[in-house]
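W.,

You were right to be curious about this one. When I first looked at the sequence I had no strong expectations either way, so I just let the prediction run and decided to look at it fresh. Below is the sequence, 142 residues in total, followed by the output.
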Amino acid sequence: MADRHDYVALEWVKGEIAETLKHARQALDAFVARPHDPSAMEVCLDFIHQVHGSLQMIEFYGAALFAEEIEQLALALQQGHVVQETEAIQLLHQAMSQLPVYLERVHSARRDLPLVVLPLLNDLRSARGESLLSETSLFSPQ
């Protein structure tokens, strides 16, 4: 399966993804500073959605799943569906910092295996009250 991935495409987008996630983290910080201003969270979500779409487009589905979980938690936070807001914000920061590291690992190892970030994926899911992923679910095609 790893042979089907376009690692040249990943090389092209991973720097831009890291930069986009940096802007998303800045927008999240603006949301924390002004929680009653919805525009900052909208900007954050737009950046995360852009990353998710890019990863889907180049068909790195493990990385896209990671971005999707980030996006889902950010959306839940925006909609007020998160019980522990501070924890959710910390998780979003952690995940948005970790995704570029994961992409570097995927690029160097030539394997898109989200198993290495399963604990973080489950933390993101748990923060919005979703069921946890199992190791086997990461190997099943959607």
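Here's what jumped out at me. The chain has five helices and no strands. And, maybe more interesting for your project: The chain has one domain: 2-139.

Coffee later to discuss?

I.
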